Amino acid sequence: MRFILIAFILTHTILNATTAIKHKLNCNMTVKYKKRPKNVDNLSDFINEGIFYSRIRLNSFKFDNIDDNKDFFIAGLGGSLVYKSAYLNRIGLTAGLYTSQNIGDKKQDLASDYHSAKDVLNRYDVVTDDKFGITSLAQLYAEYRTSKNQLKIGHFLLETMIAKSNDTKMIPNTFEGIYYKNLSIPKTSIKTAFLQKQKLRDHTHFHHILAYGDDATDSYSKWTQNDDGAMHRGLTLSKLKAKNIKDEMYLMEVKNTTVDNLTLKLNYTELPDLLSYAIFDAKYKINTNGFMIIPALHYMQQFDNGAGTIGGANLKNNTVAYTNADSLSATLVAGRLDIVKNASSLRLGYSKTADKGDFVTPWRAFPTAGYTRTMGQTNWYANTESYMIRMDYDFSKAKLLPGWRAMMRYAIQDFDDNKAGVQADNRVLTFDIVKHFKSIPNFRTKLRAAFVNGDKNTIAKDNSIKADPSYNELRLEFNYLF
Fold first, then answer.
1. What Cα–Cα distance (Å) separates residue 106 from each residue in 114, 169, 234, 302, 402?
2. Model confidence band, residue 20 (pLDDT cutoffs 50, 70, 90)
3. Which range, of 28-37, 294-303, 332-341, 357-366, averages the lowest pLDDT?
């Protein structure tokens, strides 16, 4: 029965092979709808005039850990089936069913070592039920929509500077709550949301948005709540319950393009009695002598409203060499410069976190994204400095290789050597190759490779030797939307 959804999607593909493209992927793998349901005036058409959006995808991961024998190969085969009803009195319904079934290694003892590939399976199900697949109703919401207003209630995708769908593998990151977007002010969008649950990509069910599982009766409870790599291991569910704290999120984000070529974004987010955030992002486009030059600046402040006292300054509960072991106040400054000409582009990026606390951001919108974050890396610990160079080339635009695009990134990550709870320094080199097919415009394949070379002999302030962070990784993805 576990492959019923895959079989249905494959059958649906054959029957609809000539159907026009209804949705597509942008460069970040986020789905963009090209065709939406129409407005109707009766209940029958409300259902019958709805649209199914289908997707088949395969993600495979080959991981080579330099120091030990925890190498693995995992491949997830699955897809999604999203239904959007027509709009009756501007009200519509959306339901999205997703599945990922593992066709690679099936080793229970490697569950905690699957690293980025864990998102094709549910680690808790692996170790408790020997189940290597996920099938989840990740989207289910009611929507009210006009030309300038959008209201969602239920389980939905979200795209903001603090929380995102991050749909780069098999199943997107989704949230439970209320979302509202307004476009009434010219050249301005305002997003607001109240979020009370989250479903990370490798979870079957919705869980706490900022609480780490610590049920004493369950050896694997750490994988039942928010176990994202950027989650604070000290903000446990039992500690929050003892203090009667509900981990709920309130956010507002404003985007403005009033000034020509200038894009400004402001975000304020709060989790009462825990943390709050203020984010500013600006970019400006300059056209000169055939070049597009785009400088950008990013500033992020994390305010400690009580979380530091509960969990401490470090994400992994090791506060050796932190300036204030009980504070999660944090500051990040990042900048970049893009230089674009025809089919090629160059990006120079820099980021620096203050020597305070670590950033707690387990909602898949990474603090250094777009500036210095590379594939699978976390570089927003306290007192971390990062540099990145990125080069892109669109072979199709240059009329050399139709449908081909390539990207290379090289990052230098300088972590605080004294902090025992922070990884050792490393150098990261990644390559991405994307191929679109003109004859099959809704099919896309992507190959990614990462080579991480880390310091082997870093000694922290407590005289412990940090683990060597070196590894190599290869990812191959296929996407077909119909």
1. 11, 18, 30, 39, 38
2. low
3. 28-37
Pairwise CA distance, residues 17 & 140, whole Å: 27
Euclidean distance between CA atoms 217 and 174, whole angstroms: 28
Strand partners, 288: 291
CB 310 within 8 A of CB 234: yes
Question: Which CATH number do you get for residue 159?
Answer: 2.40.160.10
Q: Is the pTM of this model over 0.90?
A: yes
CA 381 and chain centroid, separation: 18
Q: Which domain holds residue 351?
A: 4-481
Determine phi and psi for 194, rounding to 5 degrees: -120, 120
Q: How far apart are CA 97 and CA 64, in angstroms?
A: 32
Residue 293 neighbours by CB distance under 10 Å: 15
Q: How many domains does the chain have?
A: 1
> Which amino acid is it at 320?
V
Number of Cβ atoms within 10 Å of the Cβ of 10? 14
> How many Å apart are CA 120 and CA 104, to the nearest integer?
10
First-last CA distance in the chain:
24
List the one residue out of 76, 213, 187, 64 whose CA is nearest residue 133.
76
- For residue 25, give the nearest of 50, 5, 59, 55 by alpha carbon: 55
Q: Each residue of 424-439: pLDDT tens digit?
A: 999 999 999 999 998 9
* Chain centre distance of CA 51: 26
